[in-house]
Amino acid sequence: MDNSLSPKMDFGGITKTEGVTYNNSNGASSVAALTTADFLRDSCAQMKLGVGARDHQECPHRVTFDYYSPSDSATLQEAIHAAYRHLHGNCYVMDNERAAELESQLSHGSLSIREFVRALVKRDFYRDRFFSVVSPHRGIELAFKHLLGRPPLHQQEISAAIATQAAHGFDALVDSLVDSAEYSEVFGADTVPYSRAWTSASGMPMINFVRMAALEQNFVTSDRNNGSASILLGNLTKGTPLPIKVSKKVNFVGVSAAWGAGKPPANYEKLWRGLTLVGGAHLAGMLVNVLSQMAGIHALDRIPAMFLGL
């Protein structure tokens, strides 16, 4: 089905980035773990767990999928574009606002996509647009959307994130999401985060589909244009219905150059009538000429030649 005809396009149901993967590690040997999250990931990687869904308690930081991650320059640019678009809420990033140093490190293999994402969100560019100028609740729901590709599951998740931010700062909040077991399982080290609440993912309630639709609003909207107040607060705390702003469908029949309100435009109608009269007269002349020939009357034989000036 053509995406342009899908009703999901009305509120952003077609993901903006999809699962773009990139890896340019060049088979670099592992280094000593610098953080607890790195240590857990390395430990789980040595367990050789099979690919597929499983309980987080088995090894919460083990990636459970195995995607091929290309390393060509075209994929690099696609991954960078997808990261900017998703992490910055579909906002346009000027050339002088791009993270040139981080892009260079990613292209040379010294940064993975996971670390590139982490560093992008910690920049002042992100903080000044999606954290400092919005309410705390709104900042948290945007962080979940941008880093985990989904809205918060419940108010307790919001409260825990706010507590982390209040106690340790914004960078600690970002680390808690990027280093989470969920991020590792869904995106791993090589996949750019993307909106993923449109499907019935394991452990994700169906209400998240509605919440994601409310956060997205429509396919081309920007997170900066949706206000600084939380969109999900009432639904998460009181269960109030979520308003979903669906873009108005264009009535192609009503605005067509050929038809409007069930009738053709006046100019088209005049042209059609004129062509009908000319065609009718031509057919009538041919009929008279044929009948005259059948009756042995040849006085009309010169009429076609006269019209042609012969």
Task: Give a verbal description of the structure.
The protein is mostly helical and 310 residues long. The protein has helices at residues 36-45, 73-87, 100-107, 113-122, 124-130, 136-148, 155-168, 170-178, 181-186, 207-216, 233-238, 252-255, 266-294, 303-307. It folds into two domains: 3-238, serine acetyltransferase, domain 1 (Orthogonal Bundle); 266-307. The longest helix is centred in the last third of the chain and has 29 residues, at 266-294. The radius of gyration is 32 Å and the shape is elongated.
Which structural class is indicated by helix and strand composition? mainly alpha
* CATH architect. name of the largest domain: Orthogonal Bundle
CATH topology of the largest domain: serine acetyltransferase, domain 1
CATH homologous superfamily label of the largest domain: Phycobilisome linker domain
Name of the top-level CATH class of the largest domain: Mainly Alpha
Average the pLDDT over all residues and give the rounded result.
Answer: 77
Distance between the termini: 59 Å
Question: Which oligomeric state applies?
Answer: single chain
Number of strands: 0
Helical proportion, percent range: 40-55%
Question: Can you count the helices?
Answer: 14
